[in-house]
Amino acid sequence: MKTFEIPEFYHSPLITQIKSYRKLQDPRKRDLSPTYIDFGPVGFYIARHFGFCYGVENAIEISFKAVNENPGKRIFLLSQMIHNPNVNKDLTDNGVQFLQDTNGKQLISFDELTPNDVVIIPAFGATLEVEELLKQKGIEVQKYNTTCPFVERVWKKSEQIGKENYTIIIHGKYTHEETRATFSRSAQSAPAIVVKDLTEAKKLSDFITGKKDANLFYEEFKDKYSANFDINKHLQQVGVINQTTMLATETQEIAEHFKQVMIAKYGEDNLKQHFADTRDTLCYATNENQDATYGLLKTDADLAIVVGGYNSSNTSHLVELLEQKFPTYFISSDKEIESNTLIHHFDYPNQKRLSTNDFIPKKEKVNIILTSGASCPDVVVEKVLNKLLSYFKGIKTKEEAFSFTNQ
Ligand code: SF4
Question: Distance from the CA of 284 to the center of ligand 1, in angstroms?
Answer without folding.
Answer: 8
